[in-house]
Amino acid sequence: MNVLFLCTGNSARSILAEAIANSLSPSKAMFRAYSAGSHPKGAVHPLALELLAQSRIPMDSLRSKSWDEFAVPDAPVMDFVVTVCDQAAGEQCPYWPGQPMTAHWGMPDPAMVEGTEDQKRHAFSETANMLRRRIELFASIPFDKLDRLSLHRQVRDIGKI
Predict the structure, then answer these.
(1) What pLDDT sits at residue 21?
(2) How do residues 130-139 score in pLDDT, each as one tens digit?
(3) Three-point CA angle 106, 146, 136, nearest 5°
(4) Which of the residues are catalytic?
(5) What is the sign of the dihedral through the CA atoms of 39, 54, 127 and 81?
(6) Is 94 helix (H, G, I), strand (E, B) or coil?
């Protein structure tokens, strides 16, 4: 299964979600994660890269990109599209081939935190921990045992945690 994490800038939250999801062990990961933004910043936030490096999470293929890359005919077909910021949840999304399930897992933007470098790092760490917990819950869903409506409800409810 493919999951696309969306955020406006695709520099912090959605990037962290993509990297964390793809770093899960093969026994837990039943999906391939991607990320994109409606108005990508063009670069991954340095504190996101720092946190991923400290966590030894691969980041070779990470880049800030437009969601338009995933709305073209030869793009991977998404099974799930998850917004992780409020701006992307309220925007008009492109048409996603395959009618993926959508969910909103909104959370504060760590890139917007003002203060000391330690306070900013703490915000990124909290965001990554929240994303990891939600992604672990997502990976633990018994996909093959649920009907589409029940599955959609469970994926949406993860955003309330």
Answers:
(1) 94
(2) 999 999 999 9
(3) 40
(4) 7, 85, 93
(5) positive
(6) coil
Name the pTM for this structure: 0.92
Long-range contacts of 95-104 (CB under 8 A, 24+ apart): 95/71, 96/4, 96/70, 96/71, 97/71, 97/73, 100/4, 101/148, 101/151, 101/152, 101/155, 103/152, 103/155, 103/156, 103/158, 103/159, 104/156, 104/159
Query: What are the tokens at 77?
Result: 């077909």
Residue type, 160: K
Q: Which residues contact 88 (CB under 8 A, 6 or more apart)?
A: 6, 7, 8, 37, 38
Q: How many CB atoms lie within 10 A of CB 81?
A: 23
